[in-house]
Amino acid sequence: MKTMESSPLSGDKHAPILQLRRLSVGIGERRFCRDLDLTLRPGERLAILGRNGTGKSTLLSVLTGLRAPLTGEVHLAGRPYAAFSARQAAQLRGWLPQAQRDAFASTVLETALIGRHPHLDRWNWETEDDVRIARTALTAVGLDGMERRDVQTLSGGERQRLAVATLLAQSPRLFFLDEPSTYLDLKHQIAVLEIFAREARERQAAVVMVLHEPALAARFCDRALLMYGDGCVDTGSIAEMLTAERLSALFEYPLARTECGGYAGFIAQ
């Protein structure tokens, strides 16, 4: 039996799914962003770019509700996190952290089914439909046929793809991805990012992803947020943000922009 708790989303499906109002984020005396205003609508994909240590993951933890901002507000579907139960928030937004930690042995299928927990009543088991959803997610990331494997026997790349499958099984309307290409070879980097592009296109899910490769941001995102680490940020369309001049300043290294087959690339000079 499924939970009867009301859906966290109601009303206009085209209304902003994420709104930041004068958001300031930092740790101790250090400020990573100040007075950030941003609106993300269903179907939009935002890349967060910056050097190591500029606060990208810290900002993402605030956006997911796992850390409080210094000042300002984060609203999901027009409401602050405090207005949602933990289950409602998990139905609305999903998070892919940088590292996966498996304290106990479990199978690949059992791990993917964790994504269905926000959709179950507290004392109920997964249904056949939940298993079907989890299996479909495993197929999407190329792990079909591995359902009975122990997660502790997986390679780093396989474990990352399983984390993506678990998130897909959760079926949130808003994805927060912290370096989703971690541990993945080139083929699977593109495949995973294409999955989230399809989620945005077909389900109108919104996607916020921390990336280190500007070319991937140019290919798979509509907008970008550049974090300089001193409290200053720039945000705008991909075309506006991902220029050689801006990225050279962001990464403190001269870059040149090139194009091949309609895709942008950035080469260190």
Summarize the structure in short.
This protein is of the alpha/beta class and 269 residues long.
Report on this model:
With about 270 residues, this protein is an alpha/beta fold. It has one domain: Rossmann fold (3-Layer(aba) Sandwich), CATH 3.40.50. The protein is built from nine helices and twelve strands. The strands form three sheets. A six-stranded mixed sheet has the order 6-7-8-3-9-10, sandwiched between helices. A four-stranded antiparallel sheet has the order 2-1-4-5, covered by helices on one side. It has a two-stranded antiparallel ribbon with strand order 11-12. A hairpin with a 2-residue loop joins β11 (about 255-260) and β12. α4 (about 130-140) packs across α5 (about 155-170). It is globular and about 50 Å long. The model is unreliable at about 1-5 (pLDDT under 50). This is ABC transporter ATP-binding protein. It comes from Dentiradicibacter hellwigii. Part of the ABC transporter complex HmuTUV involved in hemin import. Responsible for energy coupling to the transport system. Pfam families: ABC_tran (PF00005). Keywords: ATP-binding, Cell membrane, Membrane, Nucleotide-binding, Translocase, Transport.
